[in-house]
Design brief:
Order of helices and strands of chain A: HHH
Distance between the termini of chain B: 20 Å
Strand content of chain B: under 5%
Helix content of chain B: 55-70%
Largest sheet of chain B: 2 strands, antiparallel
Structural class of chain A: mainly alpha
Number of helices of chain A: 3
Oligomer: heterodimer
Helix content of chain A: over 70%
Radius of gyration of chain B: 18 Å
Distance between the termini of chain A: 46 Å
Chain lengths: 99, 247
């Protein structure tokens, strides 16, 4: 296990951990706001933010991975992660078109 | 695997919505599990990255086509998958894939990790990559259509056919399904099938539940848990099939 692999793995874990925590806090806050009766802009804003952060977390992890692979000149894996990122972008496009 | 029947059969939400909410919880679970230190050596980043291409593609296809399927068709599919899972759990897929020879090389896709059982670094090599890719695509597809993680398909495929030890297969699968579920969740969200007010308690509840589950996991024997799991899965399958006849 090279030290580069180690740092890479730590970066990945940190992104995932932060993302989930941030998303959970937003969702919890939004839920509390909605239950406290102030349904409306505040609660729906918090809830939407929570969901968006949640969905962005694995995507952020992919970006971190792509950068790390590119830095390490591992072009095959950098390429693979970019393909996955492209697929996620495609899903966003499909989502926007579905509205 | 249990949230979808609960929301669909128990509370009457459409299967699309139940699947979408479940996918949100899968993202949360996958991310928080993969962030744990203990997982770091088990997750096969290289293999996972490769297979993610297939699995996210599958989940896109599933997400885009989900609304084309009738509720009853999806329910029947869910029932079939639940039965498949029950069989897999029952047969206790756990081939010994570790190579104990310290001079063995993992190859491009294999891995090395410290196995708790042996207390020393063990190696494994990955075989039949095309099989893994196809399995991942199918897992991603099913994941989006039904709102499950997809690990149900990936772990047995990786373990039984591709030479990956069970714990590494489970860790790598858990890592991959975060991205898989994201692809599907984004599409559902865009279509308005992911109500935030329903997703919030689900995500928080599942996080709390898994935290609590970890604390009590030692008490029950693995065997008892498996039997309970099989019974519940078969019950879910039966309910899904019955409901699909009524839809």
């Amino acid at each position: 296990m090279t030290s580069r692999d180690r740092r890479f793995e730590l970066a990945v874990s940190r992104v995932l951990g932060l993302g989930v925590t941030a998303a959970s806090l937003c969702l919890a806050a939004g839920l509390v706001a909605a239950l406290a009766g102030s349904a409306g802009a505040v609660s729906s804003g918090l809830l939407a933010a929570g969901l968006l952060i949640l969905m962005a977390t694995p995507a952020a992890r992919i970006v971190v991975a792509a950068v790390a692979y590119a830095r390490g000149r591992e072009w095959l894996f950098a390429g693979l992660t970019l393909v996955v990122l492209a697929e996620l972008v495609a899903s966003v496009v499909a989502a926007i078109q579905g509205r | 695997m249990f949230l979808v029947p609960l929301l669909n059969l128990g509370f009457g939400f459409p299967l699309r919505v139940s699947a979408a909410v479940s996918l949100a919880t899968v993202i949360a679970t996958s991310s928080s599990v993969s962030a744990e230190r203990a997982q770091e050596n088990l997750i096969n980043l290289r293999l996972g990255t490769l297979l993610e291409v297939a699995t996210v593609a599958g989940s896109l296809l599933g997400g885009v086509s989900a609304h084309l399927f009738a509720e009853s068709t999806l329910q029947r599919l869910f029932g079939a998958v639940a039965i498949a899972v029950a069989i897999a759990v029952f047969s206790r897929v756990n081939r010994r894939n570790v190579i104990l020879d310290p001079a063995a090389a993992p190859g491009r896709w294999g891995g090395v990790f410290v196995d708790a059982e042996h207390g020393a670094p063990v190696t494994y090599q990955v075989k039949r990559i095309p099989v893994a890719l196809i399995g991942s695509f199918l897992a991603g597809n099913v994941s989006s259509l039904l709102g499950i993680g997809g690990g149900i398909i990936k772990v047995p495929v990786l373990n039984a056919w591709c030479g990956v030890p069970l714990r590494a297969a489970a860790a790598t699968s858990a890592f991959m399904i975060g991205v898989t579920a994201t692809g599907g969740a984004i599409i559902y969200y865009g279509r308005g099938d992911l109500p935030p007010l329903l997703a919030a308690p689900a995500v928080i509840g599942v996080q709390l539940g898994s935290w609590a589950g970890l604390r009590w996991a030692d008490r029950a024997t693995a065997r008892a848990l498996k039997i309970l799991l099989v019974i519940v899965l078969l019950g879910v399958a039966a309910l899904m099939f019955t409901r699909s006849l009524q839809s």
